Amino acid sequence: MNTTKRIFFMAACLMAAGALYAQGNGQAGITEATQMVTSYFDPGTKLVYAIGAVVGLIGGIKVYNKFSSGDPDTSKTAASWFGACIFLIVAATILRSFFL
């Protein structure tokens, strides 16, 4: 082999080795990021449920006050409150199953 071919072969080997090294670090970074997101998802889901419980209680009190005062708009308020509670539970469950 002449000198030019040897230099070209050596450069190609070094580039291939560098690409393999960089690929390993990228995979480790993606794995670490996935583990971090997964570890934060359970507390985040519990936080969403807690906020939903507080908002649900406030909505229940609002519906009770409308019902007690004889407001004709009570059924619409109750339906929207109930729908929001169901959406919150379903959305959190679907997101949990999608990401975990």
TrEMBL record:
Keywords: Membrane, Signal, Transmembrane, Transmembrane helix. Residues 1-22 form the signal peptide. This is DUF4134 domain-containing protein. The chain crosses the membrane at residues 46-65, 77-99.
